[in-house]
Amino acid sequence: MPPLARASRVRTPRRAPVGGGALAYLFLAPYLILFTFFVVFPAVYGVWVSFHSWDLLLPNKPWVGLDNYRNLLDTSTPAGGDFWQAMKATGIFSVFSVPLLVVLPLAVALILNQKFRGRNFFRAVYFAPYVLGVAVIGVLWTLLLDPNIGVVNFYLEKVGAPQNIAWTTSLPWAWVALVGVTVWWTLGYNAVIYLAGLQDIPGELYEAAKVDGASRWGRFRHVTIPGLRPVLVFVVTITILASANMFGQAWLITGGAPGNETRTAIMLIAQEGLQNFRLGSAAAMSFVLAVFLMVVSLATFFAFRERKG
Q1: Chain-centre distance of CA 241, in angstroms?
Q2: Which of 128, 174, 176, 244 is the least crowded, having the fewest Cβ atoms under 10 Å away?
Q3: All structural domains of the chain with their residue ranges
Q4: CA quadruple 200, 203, 209, 212: dihedral positive or negative?
Q5: What are the backbone dihedrals phi and psi of residue 200, each rounded to the nearest 5 degrees, phi first?
Q6: CATH 1.10.3720.10 fits 85-303, yes or no
Q7: What is the pLDDT of residues 66-84, one digit of tens each?
Q8: Residue in 89, 278, 52 with CA at minimum distance from that of residue 81
Q9: What is the pTM (predicted TM-score) of this model?
Q10: How many CB atoms lie within 10 A of CB 143?
Q11: Which residues of 1-23 are buried (b: 16+ CB within 10 A; e: fewer)?
């Protein structure tokens, strides 16, 4: 090959467009501005507030340092006792709701991923409750679970179940009601996420597993679960965070009853800051809860990490 021909075949590296980096930041600027003003600044300002005795009704906001945090760690103080009772309620709700919202949507997604007549209809039916707001869900289920006029007790009585169950004012029925309503309401969202993940798993993997003699359980264990690993991490993480931040259902359906047994941490923070006007204490509670959620999220990523060898 002549030298000129060989030279003509040599590819020269492409130069990056002038101002490419600046252009990228220009496109990111609207989001960065909104993120700074609505996330970063409130978070930093919240830390500052947590170091003060911050009462909206008083002109002075004296500096108290770490006293708000010390009070939370001391269960003998009113703030500490209420906070850890609320954290316990949050933990109870999360322990019972998260497994159901991880396993049941996966089972629904596996069924809806099959080919059968009316599949799209059932997909819409399962997802439909999720489009309703928490206010609608709260009012609807408050009426349905009413011990006197609710249709739930009416039909339970027809089948011979215990009568006049106080779904919203007694234990353990209040937890059964809150967990059941939440699972019914949000199951469709997780199922849709799982369904999208299932459709990304190549069908050739299942065919190869069949050829190798893998059973239905074997294909699920060795093909479906590994293929859904990133989706599982996402679903578990957002479900834990959503359960730990549960507020609307408890506020509207049980009001924290009986007593304060179903008053979650977010509900207590709202009462402390917006009703009692103790914003310093409420901010400290928020950051302690945030630290717990960060630890749980990191543990989730560690548990689902891909292990080699």
Answers
A1: 4
A2: 128
A3: 16-40, 85-303
A4: negative
A5: -90, -10
A6: yes
A7: 999 999 989 888 899 999 9
A8: 89
A9: 0.87
A10: 12
A11: eeeeeeeeeeeeeeeeeeeeeee
